[in-house]
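Supplementary Methods, section 5.1.

A reviewer requested that the exact input to the structure prediction be made available. We therefore reproduce it here, unchanged from the version used in the analyses.
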Amino acid sequence: MKDYYKILGVEKNASTEEVKKAFRKLAHQYHPDKTGGDDAKFKELNEAYQVLGDEKKRAQYDQFGTAGANGGFSGFEGFDFSNFAGGEGFNFDLGEIFGDFFSGGGRPSRRGRDISVDIQITFAESIFGTERKILISKVSTCNECRGSGAAPGSKLKKCTVCSGKGTIKESRRSFIGNFTTVVECSTCHGRGEIPEEICKVCRGLGVTKNNSEIRVLVPAGIEPGEMIRLSGEGEAVAGGPAGDLYVKVHVEKHPTFSREGVNLIMTLDLKISEALLGVKKIIETLDGKEEVVIPAGTTAGEILRVRGRGVPGRSTKRGDLLIKIALPLPKKLSPKAVKLVQELKEEGL
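The structure derived from this sequence is encoded token-by-token as follows.
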């Protein structure tokens, strides 16, 4: 680091005026246009004065040196990059400087791959919940060695490649020098230990690919397209936790019922006489048969409510069954029906 105070020949507690005075005297002496002048020395004097003659830059220089005087760490202004590309005697180890900051000082984290599958259930199953067993092919923990990679009865020993750290350093060259990065040891797969005798089933990997039967509990009231997450049921990986299994639920349409939030909706066709006089109807709900009283004078489009026969709520009580009344008109009438309608007409109906 350049000592600007020494260059200008002043003490560190020198005033701004004293710095200015020293610079003028030396600049006059070493100016390139004068006999015996020194261009390099003059530039050095000017550089020192630009820093010490400015209170803000001087304070940064006193605290951080020349890097602080040139803008701290916000950029590379004034920085000499001449040795970066050549690499002559230069090794810039970012892994050493920033490794602990970005990785927490530990080993690179490993995690198994997540898996996504689709299942289809009936409308009634989506309302009341159900259970599914699905068979998937995935990478799982080896049953023979229980994930250790060692043959049964074999012991584990320290990995000689990474000295038990689970990581090794790799040097990579770039336009600004040699970067040292920390990567997982490929010999022990980040575990820091290797078996004295490897497992013959998984060949020391600790994981194998096989078919697994997974039990999926579909909760009551699930919405179409909703995802169920099964933590740890994804693919396994040596030296880390397994991934997750995501189950996307598709719901078949129902010929009678549709859903609106926690309520179920259906349409009930009535005859004109039933709507006018009232009637008791036995309807088929998802819970079974239910008697519904249709009051006299019910009109088309009117909605009747059967409480507690809707969708079971997860945080609220069960919804209702909403029955929408329809009064379809016959396209043809018998002579007797025509006569009766005429009589109704005469009555003003």
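Confidence is low (pLDDT under 50) at residues 72-108. These observations are discussed further in the main text.
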